[in-house]
Amino acid sequence: MNRRDAQARIDALRKEIRRHDHLYYAKDRPEISDAEYDRLFRELSDLEAARPDLVTPDSPTQRVGAPPLDELKKVPHERPMRSLDSILDREDVLAFDKRMHKELGESHVGYTVEPKYDGLSVELVYEHGRFVRGSTRGDGVTGEDVTINLRTLRSLPLQLQSDSHPPARLVVRGEVYMRLDDFQALNRRITERGEDAFANPRNAAAGSLRQLDSKVTAERPLVVTCYEIMGQSGQLPPTHWDELDALVSWGLPTPAYRRQCATIEEVIAFHRETEAGRDDLPYEIDGLVVKVNRRDWQKRLGEKSRSPRWAIAYKFTPRKEITVVQDIAVSVGRTGTLTPLALLKPVEVGGVTISRATLHNADEVARKDIRVGDTVKVERAGDVIPAIAERIEVPGQKRNRPFQMPDRCPVCGSAVAREGAYYYCTGQAACPAQLKGSIEHFASKSALNIDGMGKKTVAQLVECGLVGNLADLYRLRKEQLIELDGFADRSASLLLDAIAQSKRVPLERFLMGLGIRQVGQHIARVLAEHFKTLDAIMATDRETFESVHEVGPEIAASLESYFKEAHNRQVIQQLRDLGLTIEAVPETGPAARPFAGKTFVFTGGLERFSRDEAKQRVERLGGRAAASVSKQTDYVVAGAEAGSKLDQAKKLGVKVLSEAEFATLLEQN
Ligand code: IVH
Q1: Could you read off the pLDDT of 64-94 as tens digits, one per residue?
Q2: In testing the pocket of ligand 1, which one of 79, 225, 227 has its CB within 8 Å of the most ligand atoms?
Q3: Which domains, and CATH codes, for the chain?
Q4: Is 116 designated active site?
Q5: What is the DSSP annotation of 543-605?
């Protein structure tokens, strides 16, 4: 390829990759699979590697690579980054509204209401469409320069969409945060390495962004959303709502979940609805931010020294409560990890009764100095297993001895080994807890989906010695099952049918089911789409794994060691000999992805499918399942007793399908 052709192809690829980043992060409606994205990315990296002279700093490949810093530089903000006053009650929000009317002398004041993200605030500066600087809030006047760290966030465009004419200079404010599922996975990863878990997604986001080495930030699942223009050359949009739309058009991610409210009653209703559905959002929010919509009115209302007069944080009931640690138990996971667990005096936190909290690992217990009998504050974020935020000193109280990890596995009595703060049982498949855990995982809905193979059945099969590895599941015979407690002729046949039905399994589910450390649903899909067959994966070495987009060194190491282990290879061979067919991934043409670009939201109870199944069906056809309804949603599938999401769909004019209509749509495709 000559230089001109290479330049043209590079430009086209960069444009295409930016477009897909924008579709994925700002619009929440990807058009291509992760594997297709990977291919584009690899083609660009290869071309740039061959032509280093054509590499520019705003190329999507140039997000990582700056050398580690000695310290984060201080930078002054464009304008002071103010905070928000917050309120909790209906009376206070009514009072706020009254104040707005009075100070403006207007009879109708409209608001834009959006989530109050629980992350950390950043200032982003774009010059001539290029991201040039980003900083943390700091003391509000001076922040820390985290430009190179922010560059690693795929949701942050390095280059604005030039065809929508962004201003020559643009300063925006946004929030960097972590999604709840990403936060949990990150905590699992780092505690398995023996490092301290983060107490909540906000701490995780702050700790990940304020790093001296941007390579660490690059490995952390941070996302950014923008909610305020702090300065721009040229004219500002007339309302806050338009301001958010303008940000979207320039390619910046903004809150997709937001509403325009003409009255304060509408604000209150939106608040009530959002708080009730709080656990459905994929990230933690601690309330809503209510902003006077018109910018000229915002200006008239002005600012106080710490906060603007035209906006308020309308918080939710906090999800922290105080209780007592009654005991500390130790559980054994399917990979053998020993996890200390605080057994609490039951307490209601944000509407849910909590009686257990994870303590992550021994170091964490020591660091927080939690002992049996202590008074503690527990915190619940979304559906995360609650964690102990801190211990509360009770003056004069006599305390118990510090907690110690057992030196024998509490389940099988094998020796406990230690790697840093991470303790594990050395019993492997000889440890019933590990064996049971790995079988439950293999049979679970998102893996082989063996109906009826629940916790209780797995426990029976392991305890009576019928199942000693994954392959044994396919050796079970009816006369053996009938002998078991609670099994009769019919139930035994049903279970055997379910096992037989699982014998054809898509590669990604099989991979996920193996329970390889660090390989969850997402990475399993990435691997399956990339390698297409299990044999290809089993023949791959660490470096090749690492060359796959999204597969980092730790995942690569874990994969390599799993497939190197003779025992694992044997079990896979036995599974195949017993008739398990692991389906290779077909080449994905557009015909195989009829739902590409379509977003579905499920609400209410479904009868024919579990939520997981329904989502997987959609994803298999190239679509996407989202947690909340927005203008971007294509279909809302409403089951029995559908709630606020259905109302939201009707309000936004999103197409609503019954379960039967959804099933028909699947069949047609
Ligand atoms: S507006 C002058 N909007 O909440 C406007 N802030 O307690 C000030 N925050 O420091 C900010 N989500 O970090 C605004 N949608 C949102 C927000 C938001 C989260 C944070 C922000 C601020 C803190 C105030």
Answers
A1: 767 888 889 999 998 899 999 999 899 999 9
A2: 227
A3: 3-54 (1.10.287.610), 86-315 (3.30.470.30), 320-392 (2.40.50.140), 428-502 (1.10.150.20), 506-583 (1.10.150.20), 593-668 (3.40.50.10190)
A4: yes
A5: HHHHTSTT--HHHHHHHHHHHH-HHHHHHHHHHHHTT-EEEPPPP--GGG-TTTT-EEEEESB
